[in-house]
Amino acid sequence: MAEIIAHKAKILGPTPASLDAAASALRAGELVSFPTETVYGLGADAANDRAVAAIYAAKGRPEFNPLIVHVADIEAVSAIAALDGVALKLAKAFWPGPFTLVLPRRPDAPISLLVSAGLDTVAVRVPRHPVAHALLQKFGGPIAAPSANLSGRISPTCADHVANELADRIALVLDGGPCAAGLESTIVRVARNQIHLLRPGSVTPAEIAAVSGLKVVRHQEEEGALSAPGQLKSHYAPSARLRLDALAPHEGEAFLAFGSATLDGTSRQINLSPKGDLTEAAANLFAMLRQLDQTGAPSIAVMPIPDQGLGLAINDRLHRAAAPRPSEKQKS
Length: 332
Ligand code: TXA
Ligand code: MG
Fold this sequence. Notes:
The protein is of the alpha/beta class. It is 28% helix and 18% strand. It contains nine helices and 15 strands. An eleven-stranded mixed beta sheet has the order 1-8-2-3-7-4-6-5-9-10-11, sandwiched between helices. β2 and β3 (41-45) form a beta hairpin. The protein is globular, with a radius of gyration of 20 Å. Residues 1-7, 222-234 and 327-332 have low confidence and may be disordered. Bound molecules: threonylcarbamoyladenylate (TXA) and magnesium ion. Magnesium ion (MG) is lined by residues 146-147, 155.
């Protein structure tokens, strides 16, 4: 049996040197935990598929739950998502702060598709915490970050919590002391004539209603609801059918391989990870599904993916994409 080497993640005070180290680690595709005014985040370069996949692996999430993208200021949002009208009003009122907006994702947004877990939206937040802000400035790009806890555990509000749970999976923890809010950010989405409250937080419905002039209604779109098949209409689903657990493509089918496989060299056949690495496969999943869908093939044959570790999340997503669609005309 291979020897297990326990790495101790370094807990560093927020000095210029440790902020530099954190920014370099992010650039190298590593994970860094940083404080925000709500809870500690588990950050990765939002543009790096592999680093984003590593977040899911580190948290041990059995499914791809979309992540919040953190940016330094309102101006940094425009490259990623459409921010106008009521959403812009809310952003100006509550940013920087414990407030997250789910916005339409720009098709050319320079961030990983995995951040949105296949949705055509992206959650964005400008945190107020000085250490989070300093890190975003040093890094100079968007940072994808869920709360820095293992899946199913409570969100961490001090550096020790993070180190205790995730020490061996991350490069370092920036210690900004205990979080002031200790409660995750309020998440909203602007709908036609109302605001959907996806997760309550310290920015209240009354404050949101006052700024927007719209009614705020509780709406289950996140977490549990995303795994309910009825709620999947806003998920990206390929137009092609998916045929899972396929060992080889049938005539006319596109082919999504995993591990050792012989490909025909055309753009209709690609491999999620020739070396059978689940993090690499997760990093490639959404982009490769899109790529194969764009070939116009009526069906995509997908090789079996081991149902363990990140394979659970990959298979969860593949099964959803393969499920019969109630109505193809439905628009979100
Ligand atoms: O305070 C916070 O928001 C902390 C700090 C680190 O920023 N982050 C946090 O992230 O709580 P996380 O991943 O633990 O929770 C994010 C929630 C999830 O429930 C996810 O489903 C939802 O946001 N979410 C993210 N993107 C979404 C999207 N495009 N549409 C709907 N829900 C989304
Ligand atoms: Mg969380």
